[in-house]
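Most newcomers find our protein records easier to grasp once they have seen one. There is nothing in a record beyond a sequence line and a structure line. Getting from the letters to the tokens is the skill we practise here. An example says more than a description, so a record of this kind follows:
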Amino acid sequence: MRIATKEFKVYKYQELGEKAKEKVRQEYIEHIDPYDFTYNVMQDLKNIGLQNLRPYYSLSYCQGDGLCLVGHIDFDEITLGQCKM
């Protein structure tokens, strides 16, 4: 049996130069998965007219998991037609 090892240089984002940071940002944007949970939540919020909220969540299947929406809602964004009671 043979064991092969390959080494990689790994940098933290803060350690990168400005050019490398921009490349990382662009590659991240280009590879956003449309089925990503955050993307879906933001699209759903946009579809109901709530564009100023950002979702934060923990979904690791343990007690305390949940979804939090942070931001602001303008009074003009609230309509009775969208309220489900």
